[in-house]
Amino acid sequence: MYRDGARKSIWQNEIKRLSTENDLTEWFDTAIVGGGITGVSTALKLQESGQKCIIIEAANIGFGTTGGTTAHLNDFFDTTFAQVIKDFGLENAKLYAESGKDAIQLIENNIRRYGISCDFVRKSAYLFALDENQEKQLKDIVTGAAEVGHEMLYVNEISFPIPFREAVLIPAQGHFHPIKYIKALCEAFIQLGGAIEEKCICEGYKEHDDYIVLTTSKGEIKAKNVVYATHIPPGINLLHFTNAPYRSYAMAFSLKDNDYPRELGYDLCEPYHYYRVQEFEGENLLIAGGEDHKTGHSDDTGECFSRLENYVRKHFDVETTYFSWSSQYYEPIDGLPYIGKLPGTKDRIYVATGFRGNGMIFGTLSSQILHDLIITGESKYEHLFSPSRIKPIAGFTDFIKENASVAFDYIKDKIFVERIDSLSEIKPGEAKVFRYESETYALYKELNGTFHLLRSTCPHASCEVRWNSAELSWDCPCHGSRFNVNGKMLTGPSTKPLDKIFPFQKK
Ligand SMILES: Cc1cc2nc3c(=O)[nH]c(=O)nc-3n(C[C@H](O)[C@H](O)[C@H](O)COP(=O)(O)OP(=O)(O)OC[C@H]3O[C@@H](n4cnc5c(N)ncnc54)[C@H](O)[C@@H]3O)c2cc1C
């Protein structure tokens, strides 16, 4: 299975091709664009209800962030209950708490119904404070959780070799193998008559009164409804201004003496570190994650791995580093995901995005919400997670700040591109964005001396891409589109490649 980066994640051995033989001129009830956990779960749910569905995937099933996740199943979220009570009120915060429990239940139901073997385990989690400031945050988190009826218990010990000041135990969390899980969902979907079209990029849509025509790299596809399960929708939409792309790092280590923590673990650093265990080829490995930053905002993404590794080695008795990979998620402006009708469209196009680091949960929850909206026209979550919601006044400053930062990137990128006077300035393995005669270019030199020259302007909204040395990709800081060294699109919202000038070999 391929992923949208040069590094291999711990999950990648599981899938090859899952495409079915399809007649794309047929009519579909719902076309689901995107083959990650959101698209696959939604497609299966709709197919189970008797719909005829197709999953359209630009690359292969699991290619996006689902192939680069860490797959904790936690129903306390990056946006705390306390924050949601403050911004959206207690009743909405209670509904938000219910959504996590509903999502884990949906996963368990699928596992039971289809007999899925995906290393799913229920276990407790520890949330721990490392300093005085984190202690205050923890207190706030626990108070908010109590108000919405979510159990968190203060404890004196944790199963992590990390000095802490205070900690809580949170029962009934879990983790699983995300690719084994979605592979089994795809097989169930195909068994029920569902269609999967991989290597098919959805480029846009035309709305008609009672159907949608999708324009794709394999021609037009007609469906009564469309779900954009692409992590961020393609095209230009309001949601590109209410979601910011972030990069996050994960590594898997073997530990000496088989001394693995029994539970899930999370500190409250900014950004936080988090831990779980996964069996790989009969051995346990510790997966640690963290070092998040806004996409395109790190000069050396390789350094992020070094910092994460050093931090883990400081606390755990590491034997070997087996995997290191990074992936992208989206931060919504007001902290809650956007699940429902795509803003600015009529009634038949749906979207699910803005999951922060909780997309196993919200991607799964999206399958229920979007199913209910399409089949019955309503969902208990439709107002809370509405993509068209107006942010409560309390968080308005953050909204402006986040948008201003994206807008600033846009302008700044137009000004600050490097000059290079000759190609010999570029060392093997190095990359640069530079200006030449009023055009800007992205140049990468492979270790064997081959140059790859692209135009550096992102086709989505004309920002300038930045080099991601860890994943060998060009990443757009504005809305998160990503491209490989040949300009091929890896991650939307762009649906087009970067303009390729040439690859050439220089002696
Ligand atoms: C490092 C990291 C760790 C994480 N850990 C956790 C965790 O422990 N627990 C948790 O709950 N969440 C976690 N998350 C978040 C979670 O992994 C994501 O929110 C989730 O995987 C998103 O799934 P998705 O299906 O919506 O998107 P994706 O998995 O990104 O799938 C979208 C798919 O759409 C396809 N696509 C895009 N554009 C087009 C197009 N135009 N045409 C056709 N196809 C297209 C892509 O190729 C891709 O396969 C983590 C995220 C990161 C980055």
UniProtKB/TrEMBL annotation:
InterPro entries attached to this UniProt entry: FAD-dep_OxRdtase (IPR006076), FAD/NAD-bd_sf (IPR036188), Rieske_2Fe-2S (IPR017941), Rieske_2Fe-2S_sf (IPR036922), Rieske_Fe-S_prot_C (IPR005805)
Domain Rieske: residue ranges: 418-507
Keywords for the protein's UniProt record, in alphabetical order: 2Fe-2S, Disulfide bond, Iron, Iron-sulfur, Metal-binding
One Gene Ontology term, aspect cellular component: cytoplasm
Keyword Disulfide bond set for record: yes
GO molecular function: 2 iron, 2 sulfur cluster binding; metal ion binding
PANTHER family linked to this entry: RIESKE 2FE-2S IRON-SULFUR PROTEIN YHFW-RELATED, SARCOSINE DEHYDROGENASE-RELATED
Full protein name: Rieske domain-containing protein
Provenance organism: Chryseobacterium contaminans
